[in-house]
Amino acid sequence: MVGTEMLVAAAVSQVARKIGELVGAAQGEVKLCCNFSDDLESIKDTLVYLEDLLKNAEKNSFGSDRANLRHWLAQIKALAFDIEDIVDEYYSSKSSLKGAAALLRRFRIWVHVSMGNVSLEKIGRDIVSQTTERIEGNMQLQSIKNVVQTILNKYSCLIVLDSLWAKDEEVNGLKQMLLTGRQTESKIIVTTHSDKVANRMSTSPPYNLSALSEDDCLKIFSQRAMTGHSDPLFREYGDEIVRRCDGTPLVANFLGSVVNAQRQRHEIWQAAKDKEMWKIEEDYPEDKISPLFPSFKIVYYNMPHELRLCFVYCSIFPKGSPIDKKKLIQQWIALDMIESRHGTLPLDVTAEKYIDELKAIYFLQAVEGHQVSSLVNLCY
Predict the structure, then answer these.
(1) 3-class SS shares of the chain: helix, strand, coil, % to 5
(2) How far from 188 is each of 141, 154, 178, 356, CA to CA, in Å?
(3) 155 has which bridge partners?
(4) CA–CA dist 221, 170 (Å, integer)
(5) Is 263 in contact with 227 (CB distance < 8 Å)?
(6) Distance CA 5, CA 45 (A)
(7) Residue whose C-alpha is closest to residue 253's, from 278, 275, 284, 226
């Protein structure tokens, strides 16, 4: 039968091995004012010495000495297990600290980009302000870019740039600021209504969101209108208003806010169902509703003059009706609306590019199965 001394010696030996492993791990990782590594090494040496004493005690203790020895062994065993608990707790704490440190290196950053007012300095400052990094108030743009690059390389970030719409040179500058030139753990998502912006910004194929279902539009409309099927006016007009949204959450939110402004009035529901949306917005103060058109106005007024002129010409066609693309181009050219860029492209090719740009911002939409384009935003 294995003696008590050998069992205690084995326990002491196990703890000594754990401390040996811990000393190795502590080197270069744990820097404490109490010389943690040195203390661990000293405890380990003491335990190894005790292990040798215990092995000798089994051979050399007899009679009454053995009773005293058992009491001493019990104390040593308890001490060894206490030390083992401390070591195990250190390992557990170390793992928890690593997890906490990893969390501290992660940031979720949301930046709303003001349409028509893209400022690299403001975007950079907004990104930095949502991390633990800091920038001085008088920092120049290049210094801000450097801090942004540090954040992207040093931390694991999810950055969302919401509602980006900008000119080509602004998009290129923003992309340059966010590209690190190497693999990082950071990810950047850009939302935009412009295919052109999406293609310029993306480093992977853009993801196009589909229209919302009528059920989803109904939820948005109901929440914004603060009413539901228990309301007789909702039951009378709700479904038709939701169908009018055509899967666009912005429209559902707008019409819901219109109804919410004076939802007890029959004519308000009637207007939300039938009235021109631009007229609805014009008739109600902005503090009572969620405006629909400001973002479209910004896009419109930031168009090049010649593109804006061609789009305005499209208003002569009934809203939502198909427009023969070839005839439209001929009419633009005949009215001298097309300016050949740099004087190098034929007028019809330039006109095709105008149509592509209007389609990219969803002011015109291609009709499947026909060589035509149709308006989509004038109906709002």
Answers:
(1) 60, 5, 30
(2) 20, 15, 8, 27
(3) none
(4) 35
(5) yes
(6) 19
(7) 226
What is the 3 state secondary structure string of 113-180?
CCCCCCCHHHHHHHHHHCCCCCCCCCCCHHHHHHHHHHHHHHCEEEEEEECCCCCHHHHHHHHHHHCC
Rounded to whole angstroms, how far apart are CA atoms 330 and 324? 10
Assigned token pair, 71: 């009491």
Contact present, 335 and 316 (Cβ < 8 Å): no
Token pair belonging to 8 = 């205690």
Do the Cβ atoms of 123 and 174 come closer than 8 Å? yes
pTM above 0.85, yes or no: no
Task: Report which DSSP code applies to 356.
Answer: H
- pLDDT, tens digit, for every residue of 246-260? 888 888 998 998 888
DSSP string across 213-273: PHHHHHHHHHHHHT--TTSHHHHHHHHHHHHHTTT-HHHHHHHHHHHHHTTT-HHHHHHHH
**Residue 294: pLDDT above 90?**
no
Q: What is the dihedral of CA 175, 177, 178, 182, to 10 degrees?
A: 110
Residue where the block lists tokens 């219109």: 258
**Which single residue is written with the structure tokens 């305005």?**
312
Q: Name the phi and psi angles at 157, rounded to 5.
A: -115, 145
Nearest CA-CA partner of 211 in 259, 252, 239: 252
